[in-house]
Amino acid sequence: MGKDNTRILMQFSALAMVLTAAIMVKEATSIPVCNIDTNDLAKCRPAVTGNNPPPPGPDCCAVARVANLQCLCPYKPYLPTVGIDPSRVRPLLANCGVNSPSCF
Q1: Which terminus of the chain is more solvent-facing, meaning fewer CB atoms within 10 Å of its CB: N or C?
Q2: Quick check: is 22 in a domain?
Q3: Alpha-carbon dihedral of residues 100, 96, 51, 45, nearest 10 degrees?
Q4: Does a structural domain hold residue 21?
Q5: What sign does the dihedral 32-3-103-87 (CA atoms) show?
Q6: pLDDT for 23-82, tens place per residue?
Q7: Distance CA 67, CA 6 (A)
Q8: β-strand 32-33 against 36-37: which pairing, if any?
Q9: Domain range for residue 79?
């Protein structure tokens, strides 16, 4: 594995651990990632989990509108570690009227 790949893998692993810890601990300090406050991820969780998720609510759409979605692309493979089904992201964005980056 090249030096760049090792660095990227370490960044992904660190982000996955931070997001997992932030979601699991209710009192966690919020951490901004790609313009998303980690505490705000819970607003979208129902719309990106399960077999038949409900449409996103207005609070979730507000989070989606301010998110730097292109910034999230490299983290797509790690979304399941924080309970997000990557195949549910594009429908969520469409329901919110947000253009989806090509990675989703």
Answers
A1: N
A2: no
A3: 100
A4: no
A5: negative
A6: 555 555 677 888 888 788 889 989 998 888 899 999 999 999 999 999 989 888 888 887
A7: 26
A8: antiparallel
A9: 32-96
